[in-house]
Amino acid sequence: MTALIIIAAIIILITALLFLPVSLFLSFNGDFSAKIKLGGICVFNSDNTKPEDGKPEKNTKPEAENKKADSGEKQNLFTALKAKLGFTGAVKEILYTVKSALVKIKKQLKKITVKRLTVDISIASDNAAKTAVEYGVVCAAVYPLLSFLESTADIGIKQINVSSDFNSQKPHFSFSAVVRLRIIYLIIAAFAAFCEYNKFKTRNEL
Q: Which residues of the chain have pLDDT under 50?
């Protein structure tokens, strides 16, 4: 009888934990980062490279390994994708992957709150006609995704900027989001994202 009570208590505790709300901070600006906060306390940070005491971390790796690591950091996923598909193709591929993941969790999106969503894309090239064409291609990828998201999730503050810059040759792509959701939906979303990420890497041979 005691064992049954303990098992029941554990099940109730796990269930309660799964429905605790967390804040998810996502950002992309050349590289992707994610942060999860529970009750104002950061429980996960993909960008956490500094020790907690604020002191610089001692470098114990051989110089050759450090150079290899630095090279890997510079050649991030977006840079590699851009080298294969071009800037517009890379942005389009990332947005396609994001939408594929969101479609997988369409039912759960109705119970997720996007407190803030920011998208900033600037199309630029050395040819005005090419810039105009690429601008149209990116818009055709961005706005259907936003329309899908607006129809399924609760979005608070939204700042969307997709522009063409004819005075520059340097394009730009970044986005950030602050999402409020329960742990159970976070797990479901993470699984969907992981599946689509693997397909993304296989599809693009990265």
A: 49-57, 60-61, 64-65, 67-74
